[in-house]
From TrEMBL:
Name of the protein in question: Branched-chain-amino-acid aminotransferase
Section of the entire sequence shown: 65 to 420 of 421
Taxonomy, superkingdom: Eukaryota
Membrane-spanning residues: none
Family affiliation: Belongs to the class-IV pyridoxal-phosphate-dependent aminotransferase family.
Amino acid sequence: NNNHVNSVRVASPASNVTSELADIDWDNLGFGLMPTDYMYMMKCSQGDSFSKGELQRFGKIELSPSAGVLNYGQGLFEGLKAYRKHDGNILLFRPEENAIRLRMGAERMCMPSPTVEQFIEAVRATVLANERWIPPPGKGSLYIRPLLMGSGAVLGLAPAPEYTFLIYVSPVGNYFKEGLAPINLIVETEMHRATPGGTGGVKTIGNYAAVLKAQGTAKANGYSDVLYLDSVHKRYLEEVSSCNVFVVKGNVISTPAIKGTILPGITRKSILDVARSQGFQVEERLVTVDELINADEVFCTGTAVVVSPVGSITYQNERITYGNDGVGRVSQQLYSALTSLQMGLTEDKMGWIVEL
Ligand code: COI
């Protein structure tokens, strides 16, 4: 019973849906790892290109204690989701955007990266191999987590001699424990997520370790997460630990512009387009922390969080509230528009959906 799974690779998407349903409580999915059947692995040496990957049984991986990723943080990740449609088909949302972002990040982190085609093909194979773990329509999605890492051994500081591209998946529901209810944020005034010239604009693993401390304090004090300010002026909004942030005022929807310190979210970019197509005026610019005071609504976007309405933001001991404990009108409208598209409930005029 070894790792090669050609039988799974050739399984047709529509097959075995009823006979191989995973035995889990689909109504109570949170955002945690549920081990599935298969993962995808592809390796290459430094200076080479990725050429051939394969599906393996999901499980532990072997790394040298001196792997580049373990010692010097040479690693990137991605996140995207597969949805099951009512007709049984499986939908991916803009996977080529993840592929492109991974390639940009790999350049910054001195790593080789799969081509866009290799990336999408690997995602497709991994999702199909784990098809029985895709939640039924409306119950959640299959979260797809690609990783790219320096897996070769180093001791002196240098790019690793070998790289591994890996994809695993897990069925997920809502990211925040609040579910779809508004989240409560606190503006972090001491610590920063990113600095100009750093790696805040790429999805490197270290960016996420760096926010754990402030996030932990925030959670201990009853907040859902932390909203970061820019590290130079300490005045402009950047992002939340795991998502981008938007401010609504009248018909104008604003979000911090991408300038190297903010993660270029695919949901962020999609929401900007959806909002524009619905007649909102959309602005990518510097957004000051003071604008939070007069905003009508604030919401966050991300693959994991989707569109999360913000119910309150605490800044320097002042608590600003939004939406009277409910979901703001604009946040609700954009959430519905985006998720209907992702779940295949509305026609995809944008060309964003890839049907497996
Ligand atoms: C995602 O939204 O997919 C992310 O990568 C954020 C992560 C912290 C869950």
